[in-house]
Amino acid sequence: MAETGATSQNNPWRWLVVGVPYLWLLVFFTAPFLIIFKISLSDTAIAMPPYTPTFEGFGAIGDFLSQLDVENYLFLTEDPLYINAYLSSLRMALISTGLLLLIGYPMALAMARAPSTIRPTLLMMVILPFWTSFLIRVYAWIGILKPEGLLTLLLQSIGLFGPDQQVQIFRTDYAVFIGIVYSYLPFMVLPLYSALEKMDNTLLEAASDLGCPPWKAFWKITFPLSLPGVIAGSMICFIPITGEFVIPDLLGGAETLMIGKTLWTEFFGNRDWPLASAVAVLLLLALVVPIVIFQNQQQKVR
Amino acid sequence: MKASRFDSTVLTLCFAFLYIPILILIIYSFNASKLVTVWGGFSLEWYRVMWSNEGLMDAAWVTARVGVLSATIGTVLGTLAALALTRYPRFPGRMAFTGMIYAPLVMPEVITGLSLLLLFVAMNVERGFWTVTIAHTTFTMCYVAIIVQSRLVTFDRSLEEAALDLGCPPVKTFFKITLPLILPAIISGWMLAFTLSLDDLVIASFTTGPGATTLPIKIYSQVRLGVTPEINAICTILIGLVTIGVIFTSISTKRAETRRILDEHQAVRAAG
Fold first, then answer.
1. Closest-CA residue of chain B to A26
2. Fold (CATH) for A79-301
3. ipTM of the complex model
4. Which of A23, A71, A108, B217 is most exposed, with minimal Cβ within 10 Å?
5. Is B111 in Cβ contact with A243 (below 8 Å)?
6. CATH 1.10.3720.10 fits B54-271, yes or no
């Protein structure tokens, strides 16, 4: 295992080290995706499992091809619900990522400019909430945002709200945005911080010596240099937010449409597995583009 | 001066935003009143109610077992994967392997959950404790691989080479030198894997079966019915456990880092 270079070629450990995790991922990560693809092309049945297997044995490939149908995908394009959920997810993810950048950037900048003695503590304070349960963090907001919750109570006690006025944001898109920004803030701050922290301060000093005002120095030097962090943070947030289920389900209302929630309902509510699989395939396709952009960016950084 | 005042305002506001909801949740878990917005005095009543709630306790036990088991298998597999990525620059399908390590990190949970469920159905496996454990192992091993890999990249190979030159067999070199040196990364990988497993609702919901309800599934089904004080209590305990764990690991990692040079010398002596 610890051998180097040429000797590693005939090392029996090599097969263990590479083979075991490789095999595990092939069986439990790659194979399931092929199955999703296959089932998204099969017919719904009420039996358990609720789909008609389209593919029986490896011999009958001709049979297999003739039985495949794109019915589920056609259905997805016919019913505006899915297209709306799809577009709405992308819109929600885009707005949330923008909000996250707006809040996360000043925070990461402030952290990077803090004295180096307190920086590790600040970093720890950003990471700590990330370790506590996602579900708990979303749940904490329900008690605050609901109409008879703590926010209403606070606004009433400082006199901004009358005794019978209540905050009406629970079960709306606004509550979903609050929940997403709250849950994903560490994911945005960490890549931004690591990009800003290794910034060369002499550049800013040179700019100010030459009479450049601080805001202009920020736009001309700090921001362009932090761009890899901005892109990394945006992708790390945008991709999972698009498929988010827990936050829109617990904080959002009936009109909050998101593709992750639609997939869940299709699967657990309507028990239409092929349709749920087709939704999953489309969601995956939507994410391929940002992932490819992200990969290219990473390669450029290296 | 103006910039630093702006910075401290930003930091105060952001940390308040991050911490206040959790603090409120913890405070209200000690609330004697059943109403979430009325403070009825300090009480441990909800901890007692939680303790006597059998369904909740069963779920906690299932979650703990799934967490320990999946984090342990995931750490072994993840460490192997990290070694494969850093030590073997060329093997067939390396690109695909790297892709499979990174893909689960950004994959929406609904897709991972659904795809694994369809696999288990196709294989005709009865769903329950083991299917959840396998599912959690699969996504946590990728996180472990990335943490351990980042440690291995900065690893000083000369120590291993010295041991090998002195005739120490490769396997012994691994266990006597490599493993002790990457142990802090492996421990933090295990911690992360365990927390991720503890935290997971979506993948567990897809892959579980009767008799293997995990805590997040239980909490989720109760939360949908409304905020209840005993959920506050169990959440407070979970937050406490995770906080202690994170602080403990960060202290031990720091200590390990400062003693690293000393350890490296000792490791060479022990292997020689």
1. B100
2. MetI-like fold (1.10.3720)
3. 0.83
4. A23
5. yes
6. yes
